[in-house]
């Protein structure tokens, strides 16, 4: 077999393999025909939970939707996402947390803050004009039991049927994962931080 | 012990736990002082690899950076992210792929397309005015060996020192993971698709 034949064989095997893949994918696409809003949860210890939610904000804006964002834990006041999306007329951006919980050291104040944030979230979840709601770091408020997960799930499931919601944060509650349509675990493989790299603008905030 | 005391105890324990957490986090932050561009890889079978990259685009734009995006595999022409980011003056958006590989069934054409896309990527990686480069679905082009991973890694490492890069796609090459600073495995926990929900605008594209 000369080189050209080997190359032709490789191309033929590739085409055959791709043909099989295409058939499987086409069949799955044909089967998925329900159109409705989906509830997504981005959890895990890795990077990308909030940034994936902000990517969906861009995606939704590109389709002409209106978007509401509630940040339950405010880490810092100089984030690129807040600066950028506050300039977009179709985005309502609400920062409700006042510092990472280990900065406040005051559980009662954290509960009150989380409850005020949930009231804001509920208003978005009751507004059919909003196509996508981002509840950033809600999982942290649930993890520390600042909010009641049963009530949160009930409010999420009562939203308009076409509305999408993304919930982010580590350690998502089992009740929320059960209620969700799409759940991703962002797992940490490695992080620049471990090699002494500072949190860089444009990447970490 | 009455109810008020129990509540005070709970608050005190919470404050103590948070104090310890804060000390650990503060120490880590103090240790991480290197400022440079980072190479991120978003891989795995779950949702959020590309959307997390697009979230970083928003984040970088909020900090006044210029951004370049190369899409190595073009799934569809009506994505929200493309519509939205093409409206942003500081974004250069290049769609180089012409269909998922299993739609083209033609290996030689795919190789030529990937090589043209890499030439575009290299131009961004040599431009110090670009703060963030997104190489969307590059991992797929590497997986099918449309591109040589050694050359790709060499070009990535030769970029300007302050430039951030995000590479997305399933099945990232070990050589790329080794070269990267931050790697996240987006693991599939569940997906709406499995319950018959169609790919929804604002969520899947």
Strand order of the largest sheet of chain A: 3-2-4-5-1-6
Query: In the CATH scheme, what's the topology name of the largest domain in chain A?
Result: Rossmann fold
Q: Indicate the low-confidence ranges of chain A by residue numbers.
A: none
The greatest inter-chain interface is formed by: A-B, 88 and 88 residues
Oligomer: homodimer
Helix and strand pattern of chain A: HEHEHEHHEHHEHE
Q: Overall 3D geometry of chain A? A: globular
Q: What is the class of the largest domain in chain A in the CATH system?
A: Alpha Beta
Number of β-strand runs of chain A: 6
How many separate domains make up the residues of chain A? 2
- Indicate the percent of residues in helices of chain A: 40-55%
Structural class of chain A: alpha/beta
**CATH homologous superfamily assignment of the largest domain in chain A:** P-loop containing nucleotide triphosphate hydrolases
Integer average pLDDT of chain A: 91
Q: Which sheet architecture does the biggest sheet of chain A show?
A: 6 strands, parallel
Distance between the termini of chain A: 56 Å
- Label the CATH architecture of the largest domain in chain A: 3-Layer(aba) Sandwich
Rg estimate of chain A, integer Å: 21 Å
The count of helical stretches of chain A stands at 8
Strand coverage percent of chain A: 15-25%
Structure report:
Two copies of one chain form a homodimer. With 205 residues, chain A is an alpha/beta fold. The first copy, chain A, folds into two domains: 1-33; 35-195, Rossmann fold. Helix content of chain A is 45%, strand content 17%. Chain A has eight helices and six strands. Chain A has helices spanning 3-31, 49-62, 80-85, 101-104, 107-125, 138-143, 149-157, 174-179; strands spanning 39-43, 67-71, 91-95, 132-136, 164-168, 182-190. A six-stranded parallel β-sheet of chain A has the order 3-2-4-5-1-6, with helices on both faces. The longest helix of chain A has 29 residues, at 3-31. The radius of gyration of chain A is 21 Å and the shape is globular. The mean pLDDT of chain A is 91. Chains A and B meet through helix 1, strand 1, helix 2, helix 3 and helix 4 of A and helix 1, strand 1, helix 2, helix 3 and helix 4 of B. Strand 6 (182-190) of chain A pairs antiparallel with strand 6 of chain B. Chains A, B: Residues 1-20 are annotated as: Disordered. Chains A, B: InterPro entries: CblAdoTrfase_CobA, Co_AT_N_dom, P-loop_NTPase. Chains A, B: Residues 6-29 form the Cob(I)alamin adenosyltransferase N-terminal domain.
């Amino acid at each position: 077999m000369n080189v050209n034949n080997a190359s032709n064989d490789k191309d033929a095997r590739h085409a055959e393999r791709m043909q099989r893949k295409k058939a499987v994918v086409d069949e799955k696409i044909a089967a998925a025909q329900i159109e409705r809003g989906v509830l997504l949860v981005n959890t895990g210890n890795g990077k990308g939970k909030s940034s994936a939610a902000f990517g969906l904000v861009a995606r939704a804006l590109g389709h002409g939707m209106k978007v509401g964002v509630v940040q339950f834990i405010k880490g810092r006041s100089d984030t690129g996402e807040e600066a950028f999306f506050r300039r977009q007329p179709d985005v309502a951006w609400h920062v409700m947390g006042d510092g990472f919980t280990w900065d406040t050291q005051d559980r009662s104040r954290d509960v009150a803050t989380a409850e005020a944030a949930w009231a804001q979230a509920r208003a978005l979840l009751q507004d059919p004009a909003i196509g996508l709601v981002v509840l950033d770091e809600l999982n942290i408020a649930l993890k520390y039991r600042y909010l009641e997960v049963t009530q949160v799930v009930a409010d999420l499931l009562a939203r308009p049927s076409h509305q999408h919601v993304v919930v982010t944060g580590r350690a998502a509650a089992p009740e929320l994962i059960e209620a969700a349509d799409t759940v991703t675990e962002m797992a940490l493989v490695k992080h620049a931080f471990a090699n002494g790299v500072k949190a860089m603008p444009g990447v970490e905030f």
